[in-house]
Amino acid sequence: MGAAEVLTAIITALPVAALVMTRTGAVLAANAAAERTLGVVEASRDALYAAPSDALRAIRSAVRDAGRHGHVPTPFETVDASGAALVIRSASLVIEGIGAVVVVAEEHGEAGALRAQVRLLEEELRASRSNVDTENGELVATNEELQRANHELHARLAELRDALEASRHKDDFLAMLAHELRNPLAPILSAMQVIRRHPDNSDVVQRAREVVERQVRHQAQLLDDLLDVSRITRGLIKLRKSAIDARSAVAAAVEATRPVIDARSHTLAVMLPDEPLRLEADPTRLTQMVTNLLDNAAKYTHPGGHIEVSARHEGAHLVVSVRDTGIGIPEDLQARIFDLFTQGDVPIARPLGGLGLGLSLVRSLAALHDGTIDVKSDGPGRGSEFTIRLPAGKAEGARRTETASGGTARHVLVIEDNADAREMLRIALELDGHRVETAADGTSGVETALRTTPDLVLVDIGLPGLDGYAVARQLRAVLGHRVTLVALTGYGQSEDRRRTSEAGFDAHLVKPVDPDVLSRALATDFRTAA
Q1: 324 and 426 assigned to the same domain
Q2: Per-residue DSSP letter, 51
Q3: Could you give the C-alpha distances from 104 to 87, 114, 226, in angstroms and in order?
């Protein structure tokens, strides 16, 4: 109930003539006694007006005169229609923001009771105003709370939608991962059966060997991509920047992807300047970025397509672009093409393979170099262009990186507890012309090394009993740097590399070891390199 309604109810209940007027004399409310005594009548639903009455005219005049000075009339006397003497008293109040005056007319004998009624009226009005203010405050607070709850609800719904979308992407990724890891096993098993059944057919054995090697490399690349994503996500990737010529990284990427490009009958144009493209960067990671872009271009371009790779300086940046005539990218996918596990619409047969990690890796590696990558495509069937921009930095003295392609025969000791791995390493090394000895555990490995003093020792870290770290420490303590120590392990994170280095190893190779990487390790004189 509002203040005006409360006031009307109180006035109606008073036993004496009472009315409420504005400071200009307009009547807002009156009770039955006022109608009888002062001649007040209700003229309409919206307002109360006075019939001609001397008493009412006197009251209105007094209220107007006092209102001009911001006061209320002082008590005065008048007579009603019957000639009876009336005492007129008044009080000021505010109703719903409007200044008003309560006027009470009483006969002389009713003065005390009237003052009590006026005090009661004032108290009731104050209580009513306080209740209204409290209710208004509660309504405002409730409204603010509802708005906050609504905002939180919308935010939570957005989070749930994002979580559901992320969960769907992860489910798709896990299905792809199972498919990609399982797929190479079938040709590997088939190739091994062919070799077992036809060991004397050199052509068949050679083709089967190539199948096994190709599939193992494919699986190793998948695992490397997964590990790189994990390391980048946890901030464990450490760049090994140096002054390099970017042309070498592009050339290495072209060499790595040439088989898939040729297999799909693409033409490849490599556009590099004659002068060096110097910059400060991690050469391995730069090669990885360009390799991923070329590999994507080869896979997502229909056979017989055209691919271009170029590198150039633009101001203070190195710019590497890979353009293709492939399937293109829908506009709505371009904004999220670099997100993890994103591949667009992929058929269930998955003829192109992959886990949707490559472009995300490129973006992350570019960001680690304080660079960017962007994509342009006019839509499906219109090809794509990916552009990497890296700050060149201070790269004076950059030179083309050269890698060893061979070397003299070495005396090698292989310490590996896995019999199959140990035997295959021995055969591969001996076929390359090296003299090889083997040991199946750390203790016998140390004894053999101290007895024969090999040029290089390949040590599995996870040996039973005396592990690889202990083997390295013992050999380094006795033989010093007369022997090269190379760690073989399935762990390749920065912390793992730090531990092998502290144990005394010269190099850290991650299983499965690429034969080319192993050949370079065998050809490197680490004493000179150090």
Answers
A1: no
A2: P
A3: 8, 8, 91
Query: How many separate domains does the chain show?
Result: 4
Residue after which a domain boundary falls, among 336, 363, 391? 391
Given this model, what pLDDT does residue 171 score? 61
What CA–CA distances, in Å, run from 29 to 52, 96, 118, 139, 259? 17, 14, 16, 29, 99
Q: Cis (ω within 30 of 0) for the bond into 512?
A: yes
Tokens at 345, concatenated: 């619409």
Distances (CA, A) of 193 to 180, 186, 231, 421: 21, 11, 37, 19
231-269 pLDDT, tens digit each: 666 666 677 788 889 998 899 889 888 888 998 999 999
Residue-wise pLDDT tens digits, 357-384: 678 888 888 988 999 999 999 889 889 9
Quote the tokens at residue 157.
């719904």
SS3 (DSSP) at 209:
helix
Same domain, 446 and 484: yes
Question: What pTM was computed for the model?
Answer: 0.43
Contact (Cβ atoms closer than 8 angstroms) between residue 55 and residue 78: yes
> 311 pLDDT exceeds 90?
yes
> Which CATH number is 113's domain given?
3.30.450.20
Contact at 8 Å (CB) between 73 and 62? yes
Using alpha carbons, select from 391, 353, 351 the residue that is nearest to residue 371: 391
**Residues in Cβ contact with 165 at an 8 Å cutoff, skipping those fewer than 6 apart:** none
Q: What whole-number distance in Å separates Cα of residue 463 and Cα of residue 44?
A: 106
